Amino acid sequence: MKKIVLLALAIALVTAASIFWFGYRKLFQPCTSFNEEYRYLYIPTGAAFSEVCDSLLQLEAVSDTSGISWLAAKKNYIERVKPGKYRINKGSNLNSIINLLRSGNQEPVNVTFNQVRTPEELAGILSKTLEADSLSFIEVFTDEGLANAHGFTQDQFRLLFMPNTYEFFWNTDAMAFVDRMKKEYEKFWTEERKEKAATLGLNLNEVGILASVVKAETSKLDEAPEIAGVYLNRLRINMPLQADPTLIYATRDFDARRVKQGHIDYDSPYNTYKYAGLPPGPINYPEYMYIDAVLNARKNNFLYFCAKADMSGYHAFARTYEQHLVNAQSYRKVLNEMGITE
Asked: How far apart are CA 85 and CA 39, in angstroms?
């Protein structure tokens, strides 16, 4: 009898050890089957645990969901799914995957935007990188009440969003994006920059609007302060800015390579040929470099400039209208020779 009991006990111990070993291997041996060093798992906002399981299967992070489901239940994850973008490394096991997802330690994404003119363009860029769709961004960007609450008119609201590369979490929504941009905006506008704006006789929004015009005029940062100086000269004597890019913006004729009479005749508050002073809002999203170019505008005696005939991208500056006409004629001649008529 004693031998039977000992045998039964031995069998039980072996069985228990086998079960433990099987369970241990199930939880701690590598469960991924992809060949890359890592893959990203995206968990949408509001996703259920069943959706997480489906995504893990599609990602080839697990071969079946029984083990991950059992462990998720044991670790109270099933009802606590956290959205985001998660990096699943090759060779991960069930335990490490659940621990990662429970922690909410998601991978940040880099969001870069520049060369943007309209809220619709910015919304399109953001929706390709972040979870939120473009419509939700557009609704926020065109919310007049929200713009006013941040110290802008609806036309000026774009000045809050300064082009650069930023780190966000993938599941950042439109309002959280605005909040982050507000912090970046306040960080940029130091007391020193505010004092420089006051010295120019401009408020922060006016500096940003002028910076957008300077940005549209030149891609050459080394001459941006010179162009800013010309525009400031015009503003001081109440001379129309006559900035061609404002005509392109007003008419939305963004493919135009030459300004024509139809652009000049178009009636819009953004037409700086018809209306003196700054337009009511920016004509693009100016980078901080162009804002600094305005704040550090070069003092000069120029009232005119046009693109150089050498097509270098730089500009020829003039003190008199007569000299400006000579420069402009040289440039138009080159455009004609190149067959650029539109």
From this structure: 10
Q: Is residue 115 within 8 Å of 125, Cβ to Cβ?
A: no
Which helix (H) or strand (E) is 6 found in, with range? helix 2-28
What does the pLDDT read at residue 200? 97
Spatial CA neighbour of 302 closest among 327, 280, 283: 327
Mean pLDDT computed over 149-166: 96
Share of the chain above pLDDT 70, in %: 92
Amino acid at 255: D
Token digits of residue 13: 């111990």
How far apart (Å, rounded) are the C-alpha atoms in residues 155 and 47? 37
Domains contained in the chain, CATH given: 31-103 (3.30.1490.480), 108-188 (no CATH), 198-300 (no CATH)
The b/e string for 305-324 (b: 16+ C-beta within 10 A; e otherwise) is: bbbbbeeeebbbbbeeeeeb
Q: What is the pTM of this model?
A: 0.87
How would residue 336 be classed by pLDDT, with cut points 50, 70 and 90?
A: confident
- Say how far apart CA 293 and CA 330 lie, in whole Å: 28
Tell me how far apart the alpha carbons of residues 297 and 291 are, in angstroms, rounded to a whole number: 10
> Mind listing the pLDDT tens digit for each residue in 250-290?
999 988 877 888 999 999 999 999 999 999 999 999 999 99
**What's residue 311's pLDDT?**
87
In angstroms, how far is the first alpha carbon of the chain from the final one?
105
Q: Which residues pair with 89 in a beta bridge?
A: 38
What CA–CA distance (Å, rounded) separates 139 from 146? 10
Give me 72's structure tokens.
């998720």
Q: Which residues contact 285 (CB under 8 A, 6 or more apart)?
A: 113, 114, 116, 117, 122, 158, 161, 162, 163, 212
Distance CA 196, CA 193 (A): 5
DSSP 256-283: -SS--HHHHH---TT-TTTS-S--SS-S
Q: Is the pLDDT of residue 34 over 50?
A: yes
Return the structure tokens found at 277: 């002073």
Residues facing 166 on adjacent strands: 111
